[in-house]
Amino acid sequence: MCPIKNENGYLLLEILLSITILSIIFTVFFGYFLQSRTHVEINKGIGSASQLSQEVLIKVRDSNYTSTLTQEQLESLIGYDSAQGIVVNNHHYFPKVYISQANTVVETQTVLQSPVALEKLNLITVIIEEDINGTRNEVYETYGYKVRDLN
Known about the structure:
3 helices; rod-shaped
């Protein structure tokens, strides 16, 4: 028998090493894309809550309310069902609105007398909670001011 002069095949070791290297590379990239997708979902939820809180703040600012809103008042103002919440992208959001006099908030933070202009302002705090597995977690909080009647 003559010796084979042309060996055009691959060794088993070469094949196993290439499969191992490719599997490591795919595992790293798969983990990266999975983590990226998780961050996108979280940021999408925060963005929706942010926009929702701004819309609620504008409606409250344009309304006649000057004290903290009850659930019924908030339902009639925004037009949503408090049991279901506001559904955006399969997330259930529940807003809460607190209205207080701005001068009382400032007086608790400083020793100085509050200016007269603060007595004409109401501080509006909008808190958006999300229902996750039966537990409501605060997702976003925003603030605004409303000028009361100058009379």
